[in-house]
Amino acid sequence: MLTAPRQHIRHRLFAAGLLGIFIVSGPVISLLYAQDYPSDLVRGKAVYERHCQNCHGPTGRGDGPVAASLKVPPANFQRFQSFLKSDEELLRTIEHGVVFSPMHAWRGQLTDGEMQDVVAYIRRLSEQAR
Ligand code: HEC
Fold this sequence. Notes:
single chain; mainly alpha
């Protein structure tokens, strides 16, 4: 006879706990979605604007202010060719650069994390074009 009410209380506690989790996580989740970009894209955007935008342009079309003075035009990330490349391919290019082109290697200047974040941001730029 005693076990039934106890179980009942346990269930209530459980329900209250669940409710608590929902109440606490609700604002956290909405905060996350309120941001335009998840954090890796925020960091990638900062890296891009600082180091890449002058050549590759604000929207990744390869039309930054420095582009006109370059013999080899900067890659346009909105082209299908770039879109088709895997993250690893883009990452490798950023890491090692392109021979005989103004695109030098960024290894040593950017951390692995920064290079990965900037790839995520380039991806976003190329998706936005579609
Ligand atoms: C001085 C100008 C310049 C700067 C600064 C620059 N790039 Fe480039 N980038 C180029 C050029 C030029 C190419 C094209 C090389 C080629 O096609 O031979 C290129 C190509 C690339 C490619 C290859 C794209 C593809 O489709 O294969 C990636 C990825 C890239 N750049 C990323 C970056 C990132 C990330 C940064 C900043 C950290 C950056 N670039 C900074 C000039 C620049």
